[in-house]
Structures are given as structure tokens and as C-alpha cells.
Amino acid sequence: MILASMSPRRRELLAREGVEFRVVVRDTEEVHDASLPPQELCAINAAAKAAAVAAEFPGDIVIGADTLVFIDGMPLGKPADETEAVAMLQRLQGRTHCVCTAVAVFMPDSSRRDFVETSYVTFRQLSEADIRHYMGLVHVYDKAGAYAIQEHGELIIQSFEGDMDNVIGLPVTRLLQVLNQ
User: Fold this and answer.
1) Is 66 a catalytic residue?
2) Which of 27, 33, 66, 130 is the catalytic position?
3) Which residues contact 102 (CB under 8 A, 6 or more apart)?
4) Mean pLDDT value across the chain
């Protein structure tokens, strides 16, 4: 089994479940078309990541995934810098947003098993000092929406609905169900 992702969180989630896999990543151009529905945008990117690796390893199971945070129908990817991270957290504070992860599973028999998982996260009201404190504790630049629910999430998250692993970056329970089919 191959995970077509460099995400340390995805690797941790799979390893936690005892899944044996290796990581192989190929350059793929991600689509950033905000006019697409969240599920479709994530699905396109997950499939592209998996397809690039599956073409090279046709006898393996290849898993590609893409996670985005959406608020007001707009995707929030990974912040480019501190200013963008602060702006993202300010936009999320006091509101509920959607976290969408699409997973594309390319099978050795050339079939595909794709799915999308959606969760909802509600942020606490946050002051600028709260945001700066959080950013001092958590490296936010490699995370969609500039936060990690699993890292000091209690400081910024009021509640969530759905799969916590999805919010982290890979809905492992659903992935294992798909793989066991």
C-alpha cells in the first residue's frame, strides 16, 4: 500500500491503525477553483495525487487525499505567511466552517474507490492575543485553515461535528472500511 501524501498527520493516522504502507509522492498541480463545490474540488485533487503515483506502481493500492477548510463557500488552504494565517484564524473565529477530505483509492485491478468526508468545526470567539498565543504554540503554516484541532485545539475550538480524523486530514475509519470491502 502506498500513501501518495507527504502529510505527517496522514502518516500518523495510518500508522496508529497498524496499516503497513510506504510514502511515494509525485508532483501534481492542484486545482484551486473556488467556483467548484468543496467536495468536487477536493476529489479532483485527491485523484490527481493518487493517479500520479498509481501510474508508476500499478500493482499497489495507492491512496491520495486532499483536505480543505471551507467558509462561506471559499476554500482556505495552507497560509503562505503569518499575515495570511492570522487573517484565516480571524475569519474562522466565532463561526462554523466545513472541513472536507476527499480520498481516492486506486486498486491493483485498475478500479477506484473514492469517497468524501465532511465535518463541521465551530471556533470560539478569539481576540488577536488569543490568535497570537495559539500561533506561538502550533506551527500553522502547513495546515489548511491555519490550525490543527489535535494541537491545542481546546484554545480555539468550541465544538465539532463529524469525524475528528477527517478534521486532522484523513478519515481513517472510513478508509479502512473501503479497503476491507
Assistant:
1) yes
2) 66
3) 39, 42, 43, 44, 45, 46, 47, 65, 66, 114, 115, 116
4) 95
